[in-house]
Structures are given as structure tokens and as C-alpha cells.
Design goal:
The structure is a homodimer. By secondary structure, chain A is an all-alpha fold. Helices cover 76% and strands 3% of the residues of chain A. The first copy, chain A, has helices at 3-17, 28-35, 39-52, 70-94, 97-109, 115-133, 136-156, 160-178, 182-206, and strands at 55-57, 63-65. In chain A, strands 1-2 form a two-stranded antiparallel sheet. In chain A, a hairpin with a 5-residue loop joins strand 1 (55-57) and strand 2 (63-65). Chain A starts with a helix and ends with a helix. Chain A binds chain B through residues 40, 43-44, 47-48, 51, 53, 72, 75-76, 78-79, 81-83, 85-87, 90, 133, 135-138, 140-141, 144-145, 148, and chain B through 40, 43-44, 47-48, 51, 53, 72, 75-76, 78-79, 81-83, 85-87, 90, 133, 135-138, 140-141, 144-145, 148. The structure holds a DNA duplex.
DNA sequence: CGCCCGCCGATTGCATACACTGGAGCCCGT
DNA sequence: ACGGGCTCCAGTGTATGCAATCGGCGGGCG
């Protein structure tokens, strides 16, 4: 793999998992030494992270890991709502109904005690949406949102009750898509996002780490 | 200004105006020589353009200016509809009503024979939407869409009749926002985008350059 | 005569050296 | 003692050299 991509993948993971917490200063020399690449590929990785919105320029010469607070999360969910409700509509019109019927039944059978399995199924659902929408611009916008969402999920931590409710909501969305009902798919997505956001903000209020 | 930024700005402009038509091969050495910068900042510019979606990797070693066809335009408008209808909703709820009242009156008085003035006013309207939405994630997504839209507008060329209809549509959107009517703002935006897309696709059918 | 293999050139990826700039800290003057 | 300006330096921005790789082309072999 290319050095620049390794550096990007490593930094991305470290930022998403919180190993590099918000505010961490990312000096080019320091990070290139640490990751064992030269400054050239490291700079490229930093620029990609900046365009992703995961790092920010604290001043002209210092780059830091971007912070994310409750207002950011609300903003992110505004965008997410715009994208995902419309994506659900498009999927209901264009998608392969059989794929979503199968996903609906997987959500019905999902063991939500297994957080990893749950997130894996949600990831497959997201992929199915991407395939159904079949729109590279849309998928790029969704990918960006999901990149940020990884950090938000981590901040809100694992919540078994929410995961179980989320599975039911996903099931309904998948059924609406497989049934070819765009408005139900869109509104069920809206409801799902509302519930997700509420839970996350509550979790942050209790534990504003 | 930094060399990398000059290179990016120059290439962006040349791609948007069509000076570098789709399919043009962008060799690093060739372009860096032409623009009078070294390969390092030029590479950075190319990577930014790639993440913008304006250049693509034709193969592992050759980068070309990305093409854009009717299907791409439909895809772009799918995304645009998702973003702008919701942005209009948010603006109607959060925006400064006075700003949009003023914009509505400017659209009413606009001389649509002056294409540059028309596009300038539309740009100010877009800025006002950004300010009203006050959401950096949303604005970033909108900026990306608008970057592509510059090329689309150019492909569809100047059309006085459409510009005049567009001004009326913008006026209605601005009035809906200033009147605090989110659904009217969203639906008027939907109508506007539908008309814009239809006109563009017709223009392309007549003259598929 | 056609196909496959190996060589060569072109081009990118990476590393490193040099240039420049912004800022912190210190010294001097008041 | 405090403020201003100067100096030095840390760190980024840019240029260039080197290495690796891919594709094309020609020659040899079947």
C-alpha cells in the first residue's frame, strides 16, 4: 500500500477511535516520524483529513484534530436528514426490492445484544442504500456524513436499548423500501434519525466527555 | 499566495470554463511546467481536484479531467434537490427574514438580460442560504454541488428565457423564506430545480456538445 | 506469421534538502 | 518596570533527486 494511504488510514482510525483526541496538535515532522513515512505522504494524508473535516487549522501553522460538540452533532444530523430521507425515497423507487426484503428480515432476527453484529448489519444496509440510489455524488455526500458519524457513535457509547429500537426502525425502513413506498421510507427514516439524535444528545448530557 | 493554491485555482478555473475539456490528460510534469510550480504543490492541487470529483484516474498512472454527461447531471440534481429543499426549509425557520425580503425585491427588479448580474445575484442568494442554515457540514455539501454546477451551467449555455423564469422562481423562494413558510420554501425550491433540470437537459438534447 | 517475453522509457511515489514565514522570547530603551 | 522591536527558531511550503512500477515496443521463438 502507498505510504500516504497508510498514513491516512492510520490517522483516520486514531481520530475516529479517540486515540487522537480533539485538540491534539498534528505536527508534520512529529507525525511523519511516528508513522514512519516522510513528510510528503504525511502532508497528503493531513490534507485529506482536512477536506474530510476531521482536522482543522487552529492557526496558520498548527493543525489540530477537530472537536465535535452537541451543536456539531445537531448540524450533522440536519445534513443527515436531508440526505438520508431523500436516499430512502430514491431507494424505494429504484432499489432492488428483494435485497431490502432480505435486510428487513435480518433486522427482525438481529441479536441486538451483539453490538458489532448490529453495526455490521447497519453498514450493509447503508451499502444497499448506496447501491439502490446509484448516484456517485449522493454516495460521496453520505460517505462524508458517515465518517463523522463514527466519532459521534463512539461519544454516545453503546446502548442496548437504543440498538434494539434502532433495529426495529431499520426494519420498517427496509420494509417500506422493499414495498416500494417512498414516502413511508422517507418518513420512517426521519423518525429513525430523530430518535437517534435524541438518544445521542441525552447520552451526552449525562456524560459530556 | 501559496503555489499549491494558485495551481488549484488555475486548474479549477480552466476545468470549469472548459479550457481543459473532459478527457484531457493531466501529467504532473507537464502541468507543473506549464503553471510554473514544482511537482509537489501541483500534486496537492490534483488531489484536491480529485476529491472534488473534477478529475478522475483513468488508469493507475494517468489522471484526466472528469467528464459529465446527462446522467451525471440527473444524479447531481438528485443530490441538489435533497440538499436545497431542506436548506430552504431550514432557512425559512432560522433565517433573517429581512435579508430574504430584500433579496426577493432584488429578484423582482432584476434585469435578466444581464446574465452576469443575474448569476451574481443568485450567488448572493446562495450565500444568504448558507448564512441562514448556519451549518458547516451543510455548507460544505452545497459548495461541492455548486462546484459541479458551474460546469453544467456552461454546458447548457446562456438562455434568457430560462434566466427570467429562474428569477421569478428565486423570488418566490425568497418570499417564502422571508415569510417564514418552510414548506412553501422547500416546494418552491423543488419546482425551481425541476424546471432548471428540464431546461438543461433540453439544451443538451438540442446541442449535445 | 503471430505470440510471448524481456527491456527501456516515461511517470508517479517518496524522501530529503532548502527557503521562507510567523511567532515567541529577550534585550534595550524609556 | 513595562513596552516595543529585534532576533532566532520551529515549522511549514517548495523544489528536486532517487527509486519503483507500469506500459509499450521490439526481438526472438514457436
Amino acid at each position: 500500500m502507498r505510504a500516504s494511504e497508510r498514513a491516512y488510514a492510520t490517522l483516520l482510525d486514531e481520530i475516529q477511535t479517540g486515540a487522537l483526541p480533539p485538540g491534539t496538535v498534528l505536527g508534520e515532522v512529529e507525525q511523519s516520524t511516528r508513522l514512519g513515512v516522510s513528510r510528503t505522504p504525511l502532508r497528503e494524508a493531513l490534507r485529506r483529513l482536512a477536506s474530510d473535516g476531521l482536522v482543522a487549522q487552529a492557526s496558520a501553522r498548527v493543525t489540530v484534530v477537530a472537536g465535535i460538540d452537541a451543536d456539531d452533532i445537531r448540524s450533522l444530523f440536519d445534513l443527515r436528514r436531508a440526505l438520508e430521507t431523500e436516499a430512502a425515497r430514491l431507494a424505494a423507487r429504484r432499489g432492488d426490492h428483494e435485497v431490502f426484503r432480505a435486510l428487513a428480515s435480518e433486522f427482525a432476527d438481529l441479536d441486538t445484544a451483539d453490538a458489532d453484529a448490529s453495526y455490521a448489519l447497519i453498514a450493509r444496509f447503508d451499502s444497499a442504500i448506496d447501491d439502490a440510489v446509484a448516484n456517485t455524488y449522493f454516495s460521496a455526500a453520505l460517505r462524508s456524513v458517515r465518517t463523522h458519524l463514527v466519532r459521534v457513535r463512539r461519544m454516545a457509547r453503546y446502548n442496548p436499548l437504543r440498538l434494539s429500537a434502532s433495529a426495529r426502525e431499520h426494519r420498517l425502513i427496509a420494509e417500506a423500501i422493499s414495498g416500494g413506498d417512498p414516502e413511508l421510507a422517507a418518513h420512517a427514516t426521519h423518525v429513525h434519525l430523530h430518535n437517534a439524535l435524541t438518544t445521542i444528545l441525552e447520552a451526552l448530557t449525562e456524560d459530556p466527555s
